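Might you be able to review the protein record set out just below?
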Amino acid sequence: MKNLCLYIVGLFILLTVVSCSKNKAKVICPPVPLTVPVQTVKFQVVDKTSGQDLFFSQNPPYALTDIKIVFRNSSNKLDSISPPLKEELPNGSHFVYAVSNPRTPDTCYIKIKSLKTDTMISTFATTTTACSTTSFLNKVQVDKNAPVAYASGNVIVIKK
């Protein structure tokens, strides 16, 4: 019994010394939100010579039913949206594509009637803190053009 008491006291002293010897500041993390923010890409399609919006100008040459986005859903099967979501702002309107599964990279195809299909690749970056890991939309590349740094307010312009 005496050996057991010495063993317990020794273990207690060892744990106290080890836990007190590291001067780590405790990190207090706020509660994790129950929803994950949806990552979206905003884009508009314009005429390459006149700059006229092909869908939201005064007399657009295309109707909203003429555009289709094809992508891989969370089950890795091809899916499509026609027409994509539309966001109206005081300074103009544009399309919004919600990235369903933020993985690197996410590819979707934009098809407008008889025009050439455009490929849009969204690249994500990851930020890691002591409390969480967050993925955010970092760059967007349309066709073989150079990738563009993306911020939440940006609107990608696709010239046709």
About this structure: The chain has a mean pLDDT of 80. Helices lie at 2-21. Residues 39-159 form one domain.
